[in-house]
């Protein structure tokens, strides 16, 4: 089992991020996402519980093809949005090829303590493989790819947020508009075991 | 974003549009009554449930409640 964690900051308000999560696909960094469907949604108390199903291209290297004979993988994302506490929690996991490689990702989106107009995303991921003899290699591959995909995800989401909220995007001060408007904090990265 | 079932795209679009309006206009402002989009969700969901099984999902092991 490999573990990974990282933090990103989006220079958009919690409300904007919440709206953006429903519109994050398609974006220029999401060619691997083929479909998105809401399969359940309900209010419990004052919170919104949603379950979505995604199909994505599986992006496995040639050596992995012996374990997987389909080009696509199915992913479920469960989310809880609390507009009073301003917290969003998402749990995302693949539901096909789970034995080959299982990735469970949890993200918590909260108002930034540094700036109430920003949102912090704290990400944790657990990567596992049950394949006899290849488990460790698959986990290592999975972790490497996940780390790379995180960067893509942040860029893609920022693109969507900038498109949805151009006034917020243009009001970003000059020092931050040239760099990516979010940062992954490598200091929080993975502890392997 | 496309639906898993090609023929569900139109129903999905209608539901998504209703939901997004409700989400930003009502839910984020404290109104938790989501009845307004229920009829759109019902027909869209029926379409998806049928199509999820026509997409060659033989390697998908849904846990109980994954699609409920």
TrEMBL record, chain A:
Spell out the protein name for this chain.
PRELI/MSF1 domain-containing protein
Q: Where is the PRELI/MSF1 domain?
A: 1-169
One of this protein's Pfam families, by short name?
A: PRELI
InterPro entries hit by this protein: PRELI/MSF1_dom (IPR006797), Slowmo/Ups (IPR037365)
- What are its GO cellular component terms? mitochondrial intermembrane space
Segments carrying the region annotation (Disordered) are: 173-193
Top-level taxon in the UniProt lineage: Eukaryota
Q: What does the organism's lineage look like at the top?
A: Eukaryota, Metazoa, Ecdysozoa, Arthropoda, Hexapoda
TrEMBL record, chain B:
Q: GO biological process annotations for this chain's record?
A: phospholipid translocation
Can you say what this protein is called? TP53-regulated inhibitor of apoptosis 1
Which Gene Ontology cellular component annotation is one that this UniProt entry carries?
Answer: nucleus
GO MF annotations for this entry? phosphatidic acid transfer activity
State which gene encodes it.
TRIAP1
Q: Which organism is it from?
A: Cryptotermes secundus
Keywords of the record, alphabetical order, are: Disulfide bond
Q: Which reaction does it catalyse?
A: a 1,2-diacyl-sn-glycero-3-phosphate(in) = a 1,2-diacyl-sn-glycero-3-phosphate(out)
Record family assignment: Belongs to the TRIAP1/MDM35 family.
Which Pfam families does this UniProt record tie to the protein? UPF0203
Which InterPro entries is this protein grouped with?
Answer: MDM35_apoptosis (IPR007918)
